[in-house]
Amino acid sequence: MSQEPGPADAQHDQDVDTTHAVPVPDPASTPEQEIAIEQRFVDRVYARVDVLRGEAEGNRDSGYAHLAATVPGARYERDVFVFQAARRIADLDSQHEGLVFGRLDFDDGKVRHVGRLGVRDEEYRTLLVDWRAPAAAPFYRATALDRQEVSRRRVIRSFGRTVEEISDDLLNEDAGERLPVIGDGALMAALGRKRTGRMRDIVATIQAEQDAAIRAPGRGATIITGGPGTGKTVVALHRAAFLLYQDRSRYEAAGILVVGPSAVFMKYIGRVLPSLGEETAALYSLGELYAGVEATRQDRPEVAAVKGGTVMLPILRRLVRQTPPGAPSELRIVYRGDVFKLDAAELAAARARVFEKEPRPNLAKTEAGRALLVALWRKIKPVIEEAEPAKFSRDVGSRGEFLTFLDHWWPDLDPADVLGWGGDVRRLASAAEGHMKKEAIEGVAASLRETDFSIPDVALLDELRILLGVKPQPRGRDRIRSWDGIQEVSTVQDRYYDRPERQARDAFYEDYAHVIVDEAQDLSPMQWRMLGRRGRGAGWTIVGDEAQSSWPRPRESADARRRAVPSGRLHEFHLTKNYRNSKEVFEYAADWAKPRLRNIDLPEAVRETGVAVVEKTVAADALLPEVAGAVVQALAAVEGTVGIIAPYGRHAELADIVHDGRVTLVGPLESKGLEWDAVIAVDLEAVAKAHGAGVAYVVLTRATQRLTRIDLA
C-alpha cells in the first residue's frame, strides 16, 4: 500500500528523495499555464489514489468473503484484514477534498508537493508528502531569512479535483529569473475569505511560529500563548493531528482529549480534526465532562467565582458527611425479648465513627453496618450479660429489618443528589460555616435549586464523584471479545461504521495520553482539578491568553493548574501575529483594553480593510431597532457570518431579530474562541461590569472585517 500513515513513513521521508520531476519552469508563464501544470500533477495524484482505493476495496471484499470462518484465529485475521482495509478507504475518502495544497521549488531545481496525506507511486517513490512529515516542514518554516534551500513556496487551492487558484511566495530573489510568481500570497487570500460558522483547517497556510508549536514533543507540557486572532486554537487542533501521525499507536490507544469552554465553541471547531483525517480524539466542553450531563447554563459571575474556587473543597467534604434527607432517625431492634433503640444523637455518633475509618460514603456501607452493630452491642451487653458478640452480630446483622434500615440510613449516594442538597440554604450554611458569607450561601443555593446544571456545577459533580467513592469497575476492552480463551477483534462494522460521533471513552475516562486545553485562562481551580484527573500520566497542550481571562483570581487558578499538570519538561511558544482581525478592528480593541488590562499581549494585525469601527449610543427603547438595522447593514456588507454579542439579560428581546441563518446571537462567555465576518457588540460596558474587562476585550476581537459597537445612553 502506498499511503504514508505513520511514523515509520515519516522516517522514510527523511531517508529518501521526496522530490520528483516536473516540467522546466518558464518565468513568463501565465497564471492559466501554471494552473494547468499543477492540474496535471493533481490529476496524477488522484489517479494514484483511485488505484489505492480500489486495492483497499478489494482487500475489504476479500475479507468479507471469509465470513464463514469458524476457527478463532481465522476470525481474528479476517476482522483485522477487513478493519484495516476499511480504515484505509476512510482515510482516502476523508482527505479527498483539497488533497494537494502545496509545492516547494528548491534551489537545485527539484520539486516537492505537500498534501493532506502521503502517497507513493507504483514504484514506491514518494509522490505526495504528508503535511505532518518532517519532509514537509520547510513548507511551513522556510522564510526569506531562513530559506532552507527553498526558492519558491506555492499554495494550491482546489475545489474537488479541480485546481482553481495558486499563490506563490518567492523566498530566493535570485530565482525570479527562472520561476514564475503568481498571486499575492496564500495567507492573505485565506484570511480574506468569508467565515462559514465552522472553523477550517489551515494546513495550507500554517506559519513558521505556528508550525514550531504544532511539532513540539508530545510529552511534558506545551504552553501556547498569544493575543486574540493568533491562531492558538487551530494550532492546538493541528497539533493533535500531528501527534496522532507521529505516534499513532500511543495516541490512538490511550486517546487525546480536547477541552473547550462551551458547547457552542466545540461545535465551531468540531470539523477541523475530521477534515485532517483524524476522528479518534475526544472533544468535550467543560459542561460535558461528567457523564450524562450537558451543561450550558452560565451562573452569575459572583456565583461562578464561588463555585469554582477551592473554598468549595471543605464545603463538599462536609456535605457528603451530612445525613441524607429522609434517613430514619431511630433504630429499634428486639433481641431476646427486649427492645433496644438508637436515637438520633446515637445514630449521628455512629455516622461520625464510620467516617473516621472510611471517608467515602459509597465505599463505607459495610463499615456503617458494623458501626450500628457496635452501638447496639454497647446497649445490649449490660442488659444481657450472657450475650456473645459474634452470635449477636450474626443474628442481628442478617435480619431483614436491620438490612432494610441500613439501606435507608446509609444509601448509595449520587453526586447529583448530594449537590442538590446544597439548594437547601440550611444544609449549605451548615456545610459552609466558616468558609462562605451569607450572601454567597444564598446565591449558590439559589443556583443549585435550578432544574438544570450550570457549567461550574460539572466540576463540583466530578469532585463529589471522587469524594463519595467510585466503586472499582473491571477494565474490559469494549472492542475485544473472547472465544474459548482466545481474544478476537470485533468486526469492522462494530469498530468503524457503527462508531458513535464521539470516541467510545466516556467523560470519566482518566488514562488519556494527551490533553489539550483551550481558553485555559478561564479555567477555575475546580475545573483544573477535574481535568487533572483525566490526564495524570498525559502530555499536555495548554492554550490561552491571560488578558482575555474571565476568572477573577488568576493566582488561585495558576496554583491549581500546577497541581493538575504533571511536572516534566516544559515547551513554551508565543504567537505574535493577529490573523483574524483587520488592523482597524484590532487597534480599536487594543486602545479600549490597554488602560483597563495589565500586562496585555498585543499581537500585530497583518492586514487592513479600510473599514473603520462604527460606534453608536442609543436610548434603551431604541436599542432593538438599532441592532436590527446594524444586522441588515452587516449582512449586506459581508458574504459570511454576522455575530451579535450581548449581555445575557438582553437575549430575550434580541432573539426576535435573528431570522437569517448567517446571524448568531451569543453571550459574552460563549463568544470566546469564535469569529464572524461582522460583529455587533451590544452594551459593552455592561459586559465589562458583569464579567470583567478581559471578557469585553474578547467581544471586541471576534470580527474579521467589521465591528459595530452599540451602547446605551
UniProtKB/TrEMBL annotation:
Keywords: ATP-binding, Helicase, Hydrolase, Nucleotide-binding. The keyword Iron does not apply. It comes from the Bacteria. Residues 205-582 form the UvrD-like helicase ATP-binding domain. Residues 1-34 are annotated as: Disordered. InterPro entries: DNA_helicase_UvrD/REP, P-loop_NTPase, UvrD-like_ATP-bd. ATP binds at G226, G227, P228, G229, T230, G231, K232, T233. The keyword Glycosyltransferase does not apply. SUPFAM superfamilies: P-loop containing nucleoside triphosphate hydrolases. This is AAA family ATPase. It comes from Glycomyces tritici.
